[in-house]
Amino acid sequence: MIRAMIFDLDGTLVQTEKLKALSYARAAVELSSQGLLLEQVIEAFKEVVGRSRREVAITLMRKFGLTQAAGARMKEFGVSAPWQALVQVRLGIYQQMLADPAVLRANQWPHTVELLQKARQNGCQTALATMSYCPQVRRVLQILHLTDAFDVVASRDDVEQGKPDPEIYQLVAEELELVPGQCLVIEDSPAGVQAALAAGMRCIAVATDFTRAALHRGRLLDEGWIVDDPAQLAETVQRLLHERS
Prior knowledge:
Layout (H helix, E strand, L loop, with lengths): L3 E4 L8 H16 L6 H8 L7 H12 L2 H5 L2 H4 L4 H17 L2 H6 L3 H12 L3 E5 L4 H10 L8 E3 L12 H10 L6 E5 L2 H9 L3 E5 L5 H7 L7 E2 L5 H12 L1
Parallel strand pairs: 1-2, 1-4, 2-3, 4-5, 5-6
């Protein structure tokens, strides 16, 4: 029996993946001297959505030849690796985006937020498991009035390994005092789905423009558990809960 729903944040509850993709793209264009286009970077970001900052930054540096340019800015940020410099450039851009609360409110996913609220109303435990870092998580939850919506919140600060490693979902299950089979994860990225399944949990994926192709191509889930139309999310969850009852 499912006793808890665990939600991802970026791309699942709020469309911050779109904002993150744009921030990485702007940072890469800033570092590039070869006429790099925003659309090229955004397309490349789709292949690593949901993964750690390190993995994303290294992938983009290698793909677009940014290592030398990023390395030249290491001293500016007081970091020890080129990928960290790229991340710092990108974070400055991203923080400017998040400075406007209206941007986040306009980019929340209503169907997923509604599912979260209904789960709590029905007495189901709820948790958040995100690869964002704690300060960003707190800001997003405050702006969206979701600070008290979760029994457990786990962020990138709380684990050694990022998704697709199952560590964060294992941690949440322990904090909820539940076995993995009692948890249903709502995710949007292949990395998040991998993490949930590796933790022994059921998972429903809500596809976005950034993750739809990879979710279907990866075949991590039966097609019935990939939601392409957000309006079908509640119905899909009910079908899974009926199966597990």
